[in-house]
Every structure is written in C-alpha cells, then in structure tokens.
Amino acid sequence: MKSKLPEVGISIFSQMTALANEHGAINLSQGFPEFDAPDYLKSQLNHYVHAGQNQYAPSAGIPNLQAQVAALIARRYQVNVSGQEQVTVTSGATEALFVAIQAIVSKGDEVIVFDPAYDSYEPAIELAGGKAVHIALTAPNYQIDWQQVAASITSKTRAIIINTPHNPSAKTLKSDDLAQLKQLLEQHDLLLISDEVYEHITFDGFAHRSVLSDPELFARAFVVSSFGKTFHSTGWKMGYCVAPKQMAMEFRKIHQYVTFSSFTPAQLALADMLAEQPEHVDELSAFYQHKRDVLVNALASSRFELLPSEGTYFLLLDYSAISELDDVAFCRYLVTEVGVAAVPLSVFYQQAPKDKVIRLCFAKENQTLEEAAKRLCQL
Fold this sequence. Notes:
- Its cofactor is pyridoxal 5'-phosphate.
- It holds the Pfam family Aminotran_1_2.
- This is Methionine aminotransferase.
- By secondary structure, the chain is α/β, with parallel strands linked by helices.
- The protein has two domains: 12-37 and 280-376, Aspartate Aminotransferase, domain 1 (Alpha-Beta Complex); 39-277, Type I PLP-dependent aspartate aminotransferase-like (Major domain) (Aspartate Aminotransferase, domain 2), CATH 3.40.640.
- It has helices at residues 12-23, 39-50, 63-77, 83-86, 93-104, 121-127, 146-152, 175-188, 215-218, 227-230, 245-255, 264-276, 279-298, 327-338, 366-376; strands at 26-27, 87-90, 110-115, 131-136, 157-163, 191-195, 221-226, 239-242, 305-306, 314-318, 340-341, 343-344, 357-361.
- It has a seven-stranded mixed sheet with strand order 2-8-7-6-5-3-4, sandwiched between helices. It has a four-stranded antiparallel sheet with strand order 9-10-13-12. Strands 1-11 form a two-stranded parallel ribbon.
C-alpha cells in the first residue's frame, strides 16, 4: 500500500515517553499535566454521565457551551461573537486545526508555517494537497522576520499559520507582529489559522494578543483553542474553533465528517465549569508562572542557559556549555544516564539549525520539578 504520509513516523513525544517509562526517568518531555482536572469539572462530568446525557450532541456543539465560550471571549477580549454561528466545538484542538486546513487548502496551495512548529500542521496541509512553506526561527529570541515572510509569499500562497503563545519556544507574538501580519494578509488576500491553545497561560505581565481582538485579522481567520490545556484535561480531547460566520459554515461542513460531534457529557460539564468557576481561567497564568519559577530557580545553579518563557508550560534550555552531542542524542543521554526526559527542538523543524536547545514541560508537581532539576544540576 502506498503511504499518503511516507515521511511520518512515531512522534518524538511518544518516543521520549516510551523511553522514559523504560528507564524510569522523570518525564518532562510530553506536554501534559501531572496533576488532575478540577474536582468540580470531574463531578459535573460524572453527573451528566449518570443523568443519561450520553447520546450525540449537536454537531457544532451544545448551545450552552457555545454560549459560555462566547461569554469567555467577551470577558477576556472585549469582543462579541455568536456562539451559535461562530463557535464550533471539536474533539481537541488538533481536530480543529486539521479541519481548518482542509476547509481552505486545495491542491497546489502553499501555507506558511513557522518552525519550530507543532507537528500536526504539515501532514494536514499535505493531505489537503497543499505544501507547507517553512520559515525557521532561531534561538534565543525566536522572532519572526516579517521581511522574510513577505519574500516567501507567492501566487500560490493561501494562508499563514501562527501559534501564540508558541510551542515549543514559549514566546508570544506582540502588537507589532500582528500589525505586520495584518498588512501582509490584506496585501495578498490571505487567510489565517491562529493556534491559541495556550492563550490563558502568559507570564510576567505579557498579555496574550488574540487574533479575536483585531476585527480585520479575525475577518479572515480561524482561531483554535483548547479546553484540555485550560482545564488540565488533555485526555478528554476537547477544543473549539471560532471563525467569521461564512468561514465557520465551511469549517462545519468538514467537521461533521471527521467527528460529527464531540463527547456530550464533557461539553455539558465544561459549560458548567465556565459558568460557575470563571476564576479558574483567570488564575491560570499565576498558577503556571509559579511552576515555571520553581523549575527556573531549581536550575539556577546548573550549567544550562535558560531561555525566557513568556507563556505555555514549557521552558527551553541551551546545553552548549555541557555537551557537543546533537539534541536528539543529548535527550537520549538525559533519559538513560541522568533520569530526565526532555524533547529535542530539532524535531520541530524541516531544516533544523545547529542550536543546542531542548524543551522541558513544567506542568508537573513541584516535587517532580525539583527532583528533575536536582538531577540536571549534576551535569
């Protein structure tokens, strides 16, 4: 059988987690919380399961959840959207990204992505018949060169994908970035996919600049968010996409043939959580900033250079002063000899630079972070 994705193998996240399990290492590689979802959210899920709410939800989402998402957007970004017409609940943000790409990319189209990039972007573009055009960002700042972006746009360019706060660099796009992005989109009549799954996790006073906040940007955008990231429930695979009405209609045409609808009891529980405990979202940045600071402080005496983390729950470490190994080999060494699992940054690139940088996830209990740092400080 001929493969449609011949270059795709087992993800680095699965590889490193398996290696960590094999060697009993502390797993700071895969990006999932070590702690559980909120008790209230779990209680409401249990309630709706036992109340018999176990059949199909409406394809676009349960109306109350759509309305609660619209209310969250209004509260956080001072923007009014129609939950019923513009918010589509999906089986995780990865499904939302896949459907958004399928909705706008046709054979021969080009889509600009910024490396290091989430590994689902390119396969989805290729399955739609398109081509990913990679623009590499490099350590330590991972800043976008907008002149390079302009030079990469051709008559075949259909869209640009951005991710802010950015996984894996932990950087955030600023107002000037969005202004230059908007100019290019308007000049070349391009569409935008904005991956904002870490939107509620920013640090040190850095405000998340959502595409939703700019009417001209949002007019040509799919904005993708994640309940899993926000509510420590990645295994539920719940997300959503917000788009202008006409784009949302095209999105839903494809969504209905991918999952049709998403887990009903979870939708009902999430709607209750948003309505009854809004403080969870508001406290998320402080919660994760504390986790970041625990890890940063514990690594202060190490030989690693710590790169600034402005958002997400990731921290980048430059190991140039420690080893000449490439980042993949160094991460394997860390698992087998040090007992800590990390992720090499090169796997997020089409053509990786020579940077010696790895990624750690700090969505873990404090004692886990401190023990991992203790081991890393021995290098």
